[in-house]
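ARCHIVE CARD
Drawer: 12
Card no.: 0347
Subject: one protein chain, sequence and derived structure
Cross-reference: see card 0346
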Amino acid sequence: MGKRFVALWFRHLTTDWMIRRRPELSDRPFVFASPERGRMVVSAANIAAEAKGIMAKMVVADCRAILPSLEVLDEIPGQATKLLRAIAEWCIRFTPVAAVDEPDGIMLDVSGCPHLWGGERPYLIDLLQKLRGFGYDVRAAIADTAGAAWAVCHFGKVKPIIEPCCQLEALLPLPPASLRLEVETLQKLEKLGLHQVSSFINMPRRALRRRFGDTLLLRLDQALGQEPEIIHPIQPIEPYHERLPCMEPIRTGTGIEIALQQLLETMCQRLVDEGKGLRKSIFKGFRIDGNIQQIVIGTVRPSRNVAHLFKLFENKIPGITPALGFELFILEAPVVEDIAIAQETLWHTSEHDDVAISELLDRIGGKVGMHTIHRYLPDEHYWPERSYKVTTALQEKPATDWRTDLPRPLYILPQPEIIEVTVPIPDYPPMLFIYKGALHTIIKADGPERIEQEWWITGGLQRDYYCVEDEKGGRYWLFRSGHYSSGEPEWYIHGFFA
């Protein structure tokens, strides 16, 4: 089956939203207005105001002359776009591809989705019923192209479902504005008496281009499916993405676990077929009240082990709230990596401990957060801050060995911290130092070890490092930045020994 698109048109978007917030306005005429050229102009009117003849673009003073009791509210800049984005995110439960179509619409690529609802008609009915249940005055149409769906949604007067390959017949009786043309082009068509698409669609293309420019032909071709039209979804579509609609709302933990198990089995089978494993996965539950609950897990190595991944998710399921129930579950794998054949054999053998370690780290990370687990590898630098790097991959191999010819602390501060010291004479280690308000008297010291700046990376003073021990047995890595010959140097603490 080819592409299918749904266009949604919210005819009173911002005023419907305001009524949701203030239900007492539902039967009262009111408008949103904003300043324009020194006067207040209506930007949106609710249904009750339009029934009294008040429309957008009218001057507020003229509207009050028609209806003195009209309530005027200040327009909220950017509110329409914010609303459209929120509704488009909600529509992801119907399709993974939802795009904002400003100023008052949403475009959905529903290819391959309606059959999950039993066909396009029940699909569209369910979508509209839910949106209207939220209080929005919305129209919809479905067609092979985004342009045809938009045209029928805004100007169609018969049926909202255009059968495949029938967009031409649907466009013929519609006005030129249904092609989303500029005002200047519409005015030219109006002057020439071309009031329907059928009036000019069969004219020579050369004549249409010469008279109306390329845009008319482009919009016509897009609506007919002869020219592709790209819509930009509000959320990027993950290549590894599985959906599970629910026949009835799921409210129980058991139901959630069953849905998760099914999605994991489907996802992992695909990963097996493609020789890959996931490193990060998101399990989303779409509630019938519009709320979206989600759980995120990560692994230290690529995994497609259903039991292991289910266990990571299972620990977090109590943290989601079903409320009135979930109507759709989605499992995404935004980070996927290749799995070597040798690595895959480890899942079913007890001879290798790294799999057990990685699964243990996954479980710990699931409880306290993956950001709390770090793995460090040596890097080819002498400057201490650059002598190591952080990696999340358990299978990554170091490019060099850890330095063992000179002592190095177990824990190095990300940035050295300044301390106060007392030094008997230059080039001697400190007698005592103060760090975070605590006085440390040094009883043993070893050094100095001079480390020069890596001049090919950055400039700066050299450092003279000392390994010191205080009266309580604590061992620290201190350094002097620069030399006394260049002034009073500063002292820093940079690490802690075991």
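Annotation on reverse: The CA atoms of residues 218 and 343 lie 52 Å apart. DSSP finds 14 helices and 19 strands in the chain.
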